[in-house]
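Can't attach files on this board, so I'm pasting raw text. These are the components:
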Amino acid sequence: MASSTPVSASTDLRPVVRTGLTRSPAFVISATVVLIICALAVAPQAFAGWFGHGDPRACDLADSALPPREGHPFGFDVQGCDLYANVIYGARSSVAIALLTTLGTVVVAVVVGCLAGYFRGWTDMLMSRLVDVFLGFPALVGMIVILQTLSTHNEFTVSAVLILFGWPALARVMRGSVLAVVNSEYIAAARGIGAGPVRILLRHVIPNSIGPVAVLAGLNVGGIIAYESALTFLGVGLQTPAISWGVQLNTAQQYFTTSIHLLVFPSIFLTVTVLGFVLLGDALRDAIDPRIR
Amino acid sequence: MSDLLESLPGHDPGAPMLSVEDLQVEFATAHGTVRAVNGVSYAVGAGETLAVLGESGSGKSVTARAVMGIVRAPRGRVTAGAIRLRGVDLLTLPEETRRRLRGTTVAMIFQDALSALNPVLPVGYQIAEMFRYHRGASRREARRRAVEVLDRVRIPSAARRAGDYPHQFSGGMRQRVGIALAIALDPKVIIADEPTTALDVTVQAQIMRLLGEIQREHGTALVLITHDMGVVADIADRVAVMYAGRVVEEAGAHDIYARPAHPYTRALLGAIPRPHLRGKRLAVIPGAPPDMSRPDEGCRFRPRCELAGPGCADAPPLYDVAPGRASACHEWTKVIEG
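---
Top answer:
Structure tokens for the assembled complex are below.
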């Protein structure tokens, strides 16, 4: 555990985080993976052309579901499009939805969890019952109903629906860790030196209680991408001609006995991405929390 | 800020620095309401040290927390009484004003400094926040002042250690940080809630000496909550002995050792281990403190008292024993004569 950390000469938190992080191989590897995936998401055109066929929409039905060959390392999808270019372009919507949803659920969960755990009383009653209602509601049915009534199915609407049904579990965890922290002596001490509720929440409660939620949210990133593909499969998520790993995996389901490459390549990217985000969340948690450094 | 206190209604420069008057604090529990503090009164002047003595559960810490205003609703509630700083009743002030007095005028030192410090912030940062928040100091200025304060509590190479986290300090050094946090803004009143209980004996002596020095330098009123009779003899001017939520005896430190006026105080003094009693059984007070959720109308100490008589079914008032001395015992004359 606490290996005697060299004494830092500054009261600033940042240098400590930096030195702790660069020493952790888990962080270096996962950060590299996440950075690459984010680069794919931001500028797919820079990567898609590496093998000479960079346009995901240049398709020839004659090539439908053909296996990998020279210039097409991942083969072709059922429409005869280059699968490599499609997988590269698919990173964008998957990553966008994963990040938007994670950010949204964490923000809502932290706000609700803090209000409930810190102020207790009727605020807690109200928030906790709201969480119960959402948890008791069949989420998938709810998402289908809402997406069905919405006319646009893009990254934003899918994220919004995933946030709507994703925050309650995190909020409950957040409330629990806030409750544990609020009764700490240092919260009483902070109040005793004249800190107001906003300052106590931002400086003392949230940094000390966000750990479990941050880790859980990191683990959820994979689940969100999977959920997005499930919604796509049900016809209420992203729709072709949109390019996403979810769309690709769902087409692959019908053909994977004959053309296994349709399933394998998007899956590898999905798995590596999910693993990268999970490890990154873990490493960041370790670095930010000085108790377990 | 002293000017803040002076501008508040009821300010009277002649009034004691801190006075607690007939304070009652209740907690709602699953087993009904517990009145943890039942009519506590004490007063401390500037530059004076009052030791509040009593066993666990006697209401010492709850009284202190009520003074700080950190007894939290909805579980705990101050139901009656007054807490005055130089005559200003804190309980009638709006919360915002009370908040501005905390840390600047009244400050508290906690028993366990490790749990009283935020584990995710460097200690220098936590002290610097006091200056930034209450004094509006700049980041750089606040940091300089924080190092000064750490220096004042004799933390070696303070500038370097300001960047360390609470868990990187030893117990004694950590309690020094706790003291630094309390004295940072030169408060008029410091409440120390068993500041040395978590420390070993040599470190205890250092911490008590440090507290004494700081108090002398700044003329602070010090309320020292403890159950260590030795510490009391060392530095207290006056002693308030608490039992079951009220003060049962108040006296000068010398008087209370020489001639206790309450059977509980006498029993406490009798229970101090002394070298010439080596090998013998330690004296104990028979019985246990009363269940605070089932209040007893009479004297709370009656079941454990060797002098208990039928008169003790009525709760004794605080009798004036001598100038500045009081005892809540009907039989105080017998006790004081030994």
